[in-house]
């Protein structure tokens, strides 16, 4: 896995010599779960995908899951939610850094690029949306993780599409 700057992720995808650029996978990394979202083929809209259970013992299995998702959805990069500015919540920063490092060590995603995107308030935004639905706590947690990944990815796509030249090359 290779880190790239946020705008480079979309810019590089657009520069490839394929008719349709790869899609992006959004990640909301938590202690127990990783929420996933996927962009549409035009990289304009994020949609919920799934939630992966996260344990110290299953990182190799998770890396295989990511490999399969990269192939199945033609993923060209990961947009990882990162707790920028959370000075008093170091655990969240460590959680994300440790997860990415563990994925890198598996070497199953060598060619996959990733970037970090500010996740502040993504979970809170989703919590406020889900509260009136009175869901079962387990169902609410699953929805929260998936939809927080959607918020992270959609915010990235909105920003990147505004600032990256999306006109086709001649």
TrEMBL record:
It comes from the Eukaryota. Residues 22-126 form the YqgF/RNase H-like domain. This is Putative pre-16S rRNA nuclease. One of its GO terms (biological process) is rRNA 5'-end processing. The lineage of its organism: Eukaryota, Viridiplantae, Streptophyta, Embryophyta, Tracheophyta. One of its GO terms (molecular function) is nuclease activity. Keywords: Cytoplasm, Hydrolase, Nuclease, Ribosome biogenesis. Signal peptide: none annotated. NCBIfam families: RNAse_H_YqgF. It holds the Pfam family RuvX. The keyword Ligase does not apply. It comes from Arabidopsis suecica (Swedish thale-cress).
């Amino acid at each position: 896995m290779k880190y790239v700057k946020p705008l480079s992720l979309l810019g590089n995808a657009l520069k490839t010599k394929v008719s349709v650029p790869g899609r992006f996978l959004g990640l909301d990394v938590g202690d127990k779960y990783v929420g996933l979202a996927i962009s549409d083929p035009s990289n304009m809209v994020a949609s919920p995908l799934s939630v992966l259970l996260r344990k110290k013992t299953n990182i190799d299995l998770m890396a295989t899951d990511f490999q399969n998702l990269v192939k199945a959805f033609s993923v060209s990069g990961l947009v990882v939610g990162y707790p920028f500015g959370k000075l008093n919540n170091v655990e969240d920063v460590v959680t994300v850094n440790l997860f990415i490092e563990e994925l890198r060590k598996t070497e199953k995603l060598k060619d996959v690029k990733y970037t970090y995107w500010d996740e502040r308030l993504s979970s809170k935004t989703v919590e406020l949306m889900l509260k009136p639905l009175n869901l079962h706590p387990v169902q609410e947690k699953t929805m929260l993780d998936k939809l927080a990944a959607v918020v992270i990815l959609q915010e990235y796509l909105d920003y990147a599409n505004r600032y990256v030249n999306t006109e086709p090359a001649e």
